[in-house]
Design a protein that fits this description.
Blueprint (H helix, E strand, L loop, with lengths): L35 E9 L2 E6 L2 E7 L13 E6 L9 E6 L5 E5 L7 E6 L3 E7 L7 H14 L2 E7 L7 H7 L6 E3 L2 H6 L1 H7 L6 E5 L6 H8 L26 E4 L8 H7 L3 E4 L43 H6 L5 H13 L7
Length: about 350
C-alpha cells in the first residue's frame, strides 16, 4: 500500500469522481399542464385508486409533493400510464385545492390530526337505536367535526324495529339536523335506501359511525351490486361490532339503476364515502370558537361576550341574548352541550 508523508504532491493523489455529477440541480419542476384530472377513490399502502374519465387507474404520489398526502375525495392531476390496465401505474403530480376537509384525532390529547375525507358536502352520522346502544357523545363529537369542516350533518338512525327513536330525536331536535329513521326490514327491501338517497343525490356524502350500526349495510343498498363491501355482525358479549371496513372508499350512488362505477360517475347522481368504524373521535384540532358558526341565531349575541368567552360561564352574553327572546333557550343548551363535548370522552 502506498503511503503519503506529511508533505504530499496534490497532483499525485487520486480522487474519486463525483458520483452526483457536476451539473447543478434545478428547483424548477415541470408544470404538467396536460395532466389528466381524477378523483381519489381509495388509498391502500401508498397506492391510490383514482377515477380518471370512465376508468379506474392505480397511481402513486410523486416525490415533489413531499409529505403532502392525498386522501379519499381529493381531486388530483395524474400523468404516466392512465390506461388502467393490469400492472400499470400512474403518478399523482398535483393535489387540487380542497373545498372541505373532515379531520379527526385519535384522542383529545393527540396533537396529530388525520384527514378522513376531502371535498365532501355532508356528513351522514349513522347510529343504531339498539344492538349496539346509541352513543350520544360520539354523535356530538361527529357533529362538532362536521360544523368545523363546513359539512351539512345528516343523522341516520338504524334498527328502529328494536327501539324507538324518540330519545335521540329529543336530544337533537333543537339542532334542526335532518334525520332519517330506518329498520332492518327496510334495509332488506330497499325502502331505506330510497329514503336516504333523497338526502344524497348530487352530493358527496361521508358515512361515519362505530362498528355494528349498519353503516356498510346501508351503503351497500345505495351503490351498484358489483361494488358492495363485506359486512360483519355485533358481538353478543361485548355489544360491539366487528371492523369489516378497513379503509375509506368512495362509491357512486346507484341512481338510475346503473351497475358500474363509470356509468354512475357520468350521471352525476352523487357519491357516498364509506369509512371504517370508529370507536373514538378526538377533537384536539377543533377551535371551539368555530362551533358557534353553526348557530346563526346565537352568533350575533356573542358580540358583548367577554374576551375569550367559553360561552358557558357567568358573564356570557348569550344568556341575556336568549332571555330577550332572540333565540330559543334549547338552542343555547345545544350549543353548550356540543362545546362541552370537546372536553370529555365519548363514553362519559
Amino acid at each position: 500500500m502506498r503511503r503519503y508523508g506529511k508533505h504530499t504532491d496534490e497532483d499525485d493523489i487520486r480522487q474519486r469522481p463525483n458520483r452526483k455529477g457536476t451539473r447543478p440541480r434545478t428547483h424548477i419542476r415541470p408544470a404538467h399542464q396536460d395532466a389528466a384530472e381524477g378523483m381519489v377513490l381509495t388509498v391502500d399502502r401508498g397506492r391510490l385508486t383514482c377515477l380518471v374519465g370512465d376508468r379506474t387507474v392505480l397511481a402513486m404520489k410523486a416525490r415533489e409533493l413531499g409529505r403532502k398526502a392525498a386522501v379519499v375525495g381529493d381531486r388530483v392531476a395524474l400523468v404516466g400510464d392512465l390506461s388502467g390496465k393490469k400492472d400499470s401505474l400512474a403518478r399523482i403530480v398535483r393535489i387540487e385545492d380542497r373545498t372541505s376537509v373532515l379531520r379527526r384525532t385519535a384522542d383529545d390529547d393527540d396533537p396529530f390530526e388525520r384527514v378522513v375525507v376531502a371535498n365532501a358536502d355532508q356528513l351522514a352520522i349513522v347510529t343504531a337505536l339498539a344492538d349496539p346502544e346509541p352513543r350520544p357523545r360520539l354523535i356530538d363529537r361527529c357533529l362538532v367535526a362536521a360544523f368545523d369542516a363546513g359539512l351539512t350533518p345528516l343523522l341516520v338512525m338504524t334498527k328502529s324495529d328494536l327501539a324507538p327513536p324518540d330519545k335521540l330525536l329529543e336530544l337533537y331536535g333543537h339542532l334542526e339536523i335532518p334525520y332519517v329513521v330506518t329498520s332492518r326490514e327496510e334495509l332488506k327491501t330497499g325502502d331505506a335506501a330510497r329514503v336516504v338517497q333523497d338526502h344524497l343525490d348530487g352530493k358527496i356524502t361521508a358515512f361515519v359511525g362505530h362498528s355494528g350500526v349498519g353503516k356498510t349495510t346501508l351503503v351497500n343498498a345505495l351503490v351498484p351490486e358489483d361494488l358492495r363491501r363485506t359486512t360483519g355482525h355485533v358481538n353478543a358479549v361485548t355489544g360491539r361490532g366487528r371492523h369489516t371496513t378497513t379503509s375509506a372508499l368512495a362509491l357512486p350512488l346507484t341512481g338510475g339503476g346503473g351497475t358500474s362505477r363509470s356509468s354512475e360517475a357520468e350521471s352525476g347522481g352523487g357519491w357516498v364515502i364509506d369509512t371504517p368504524g370508529v370507536r373514538s373521535f378526538g377533537l384536539a384540532h377543533i377551535d371551539p370558537s368555530r362551533v358557534i358558526l353553526a348557530f346563526p341565531d346565537l352568533e350575533p349575541g356573542t358580540v358583548n361576550c367577554p374576551r375569550a368567552c367559553s360561552h358557558d360561564e357567568p358573564d356570557c352574553a348569550l344568556d341575556e341574548w336568549v332571555a330577550e327572546g332572540h333565540a330559543d333557550p334549547a338552542r343555547l343548551y345545544s350549543l353548550r352541550r356540543l362545546l362541552s363535548t370537546r372536553e370529555r370522552k365519548e363514553g362519559d
